[in-house]
Amino acid sequence: MKKICEVCGKPRDRYSKRLCKECQLAEISAARKIWLCIDCGVEVSRRSKRCGECNRKNMGSRARYPRTEAHKKLMSDVTTGRPRPWQAGEKHHNYKGGTSPERQRMYVSGEGKAFLRNIYKRDNYHCQMCGAPKRDPKSLHVHHIASWAENKALRFDEKNVITLCRSCHQWVHSNQNTGSIYVDPS
């Protein structure tokens, strides 16, 4: 005698008492307010219908019509190297008066490297905000309190710089730094 699910009429597992696996999952999720993937039955967050793996399988048009390598190369060639005059030079939101090449030359020179080395030693190779140690060559930054671009006289002044880790340096220059910590107000 075949065992049949009481809800849907499909054949059920011989060990289950009255429902097939799908109906059991539906009953459990309704009783516990758990959301399950509509394809495989894995528990998912309330907003999604499918788990990550099933969602990747059912991506819609991208899954049905994936981009070929030739198409990807064409799109890359079309956009790479395209001039963007609306973002260049003085029109860019982060333009500082053309000082980047000058800054790069200064820090590559012996004087610039020695200056950075002295600041790191002075601050014991630790961030002065959170105390994080130097982990790799780019984990610590030397931050100029008075802007490097606007104050040529203070560029190599040890009183004008402080060692910060990458995340603290980003925070100092962000909108979250409402108290202008380590930033010259002028």
Characterize the structure shown.
By secondary structure, the protein is mostly helical. It has a domain at 98-172: His-Me finger endonuclease fold, CATH 3.40.1800. The chain has 7 helices and 4 strands, in the order αββαααααββα. It has a two-stranded antiparallel sheet with strand order 1-2. It has a two-stranded antiparallel sheet with strand order 3-4. The chain is elongated. The N and C termini lie far apart (88 Å). The mean pLDDT is 80.
Quick synopsis:
The protein has helices spanning 21-32, 52-57, 61-64, 69-79, 100-108, 110-122, 166-172; strands at residues 35-36, 43-44, 140-144, 161-165.
Biggest sheet architecture: 2 strands, antiparallel
Give the overall shape, derived from the CA principal axes: elongated
* Derived structural class: mainly alpha
In CATH, the architecture of the domain at 98-172 is: 3-Layer(aba) Sandwich
From the N-terminal CA to the C-terminal CA, the straight-line distance is 88 Å
State the strand order across the main sheet. 1-2
Number of DSSP-assigned strands: 4
Write out key terms for the chains shown.
two-stranded antiparallel ribbon, mainly alpha, two-stranded antiparallel sheet, 33% helix, His-Me finger endonuclease fold, 186 residues
Write the layout of secondary structure elements.
Blueprint: H1 21-32, E1 35-36, E2 43-44, H2 52-57, H3 61-64, H4 69-79, H5 100-108, H6 110-122, E3 140-144, E4 161-165, H7 166-172
Antiparallel strand pairs: 1-2, 3-4
